[in-house]
User: Fold this.
Amino acid sequence: MKQVWQIDPEFKRLSVPLSPEEERKLENSLIRKGCMDPIAVWHGCILDGHKRYEICSYEEMDYKTVEMNFVSREDAIIWICKKRVEESSADKTIYKYLVGKWYNAEKTRIHAKRKEERRKSLDLAIKQKGEEGQLVSIPVNRISKVIAVQISMSYNSVESYGMLAKFLDEIAEKDEVFFTALIENKIVVSFEKLRKFAQMDETKLIGIRRKLLREEDVKMRRRKPHKKQTEERTQAEEKKPATPLEVGIKDMPQFDPDMEFRGLALTIPTWINAIARTRAKTDIELVSEPTKAQLAVSLRRLEEQITQTLEVIEK
Assistant:
């Protein structure tokens, strides 16, 4: 039985989004040639190759993995970001997010290192003098400048992207769909608006996201050439049935047999992200037995409904 690798939400968010056409090409390539590139994993989680793993698992195809050796989570994030920055375009939100995550991870790593070195210095001073002694000042380069040189960017931009990445992560924790829409440039907002969105509660944030996506859809429709709009309006008027001479009971909306299933398909990704996020952030050893039992019952009920629905769909 193949090992089931964990999907860490933070690592997955660092993936460069594929267009539908790019995803089809990847799937066709994997089916024709097999999975040539190994999937990078660390501590049971996928670091690189989420989409390849998804396709190979669905198609029951063989794939290879390579176990990465990192000291900390920040080291893993930095490795992913450096790799993905090279694959992304500098004008995309995902590029700014990756640079920001790289910068934030470097800061966290440096602060941890400085704290450890201070602790060792203090221990040594106490051991040698029997008193606290004076902490050693540890000089460090401004990491934003180091990153800026590597990717030919101003260090001010690197630091700004660090804040942008922080806001996007806060949004992702509340609404993964909103995060994805921002990363894929389906929603484009100013830095200040992004800051405000990050501070909103989940309910309000979801409402804003739905409104923005609808408005974007309207804007796309309005961008059609005037001539085409006129032709479409004329065709619609020609197809419009004549008004009946006698007005009877109000016509009911046209029945859509796909409506319920479409709604479910849009809701399930939120469940998946919530379950993955909870599993990644919770120390199971600290959870009480009654709470674990309660969740287990709910998950089994969900599993039963999934099984029954799949049986209906696959008949």
